[in-house]
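Hey, can you fold this one?
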Amino acid sequence: MIDDRETILSRVRPLIDPVVEKAGLELVDVELTGGHGRAILRVLVDRQERVTLDECVRVNRALSDLLDVEDPIPYTYTLEVCSPGLDRPFKTLRDYERAIGKPIRIVTRENFEGTNVHIGRLETCSDTEVAVRIGETLRIIPVSIVQKAQKEIVWE
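Sure. Predicted structure:
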């Protein structure tokens, strides 16, 4: 019986991705948490526009049917399909791309230009660096030193 989370996730992701894509959404992450009998398979989906509850329900139903047939998880679990939320950490280049022009917070592993917290407007991004406008200064931060990046919530 397969019990290793990474092995299970490596079998589940290729099943999930086409269903999410067909729904016009992007697969952000797949998480398997908890233990036998209380496990949760969480599918995080997103896109530029807001993801609706109805869309999450439709994807959940489609995935539930598919996963029942394919049976890639050898124990009981609960399937959740949801949007990752406003304050979730960036995991992919696509996360950064979606945030261009918006306020972000980057925490670096080490001090960079005098600080390890950088709050500003994301100007550009690539696989190797992100450019954040902080006041009048454009700060180019190497991705290799980014510990955490996420949207900065601004309440107006």
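The radius of gyration is 18 Å. Let me know if you want another pass with a different chain boundary.
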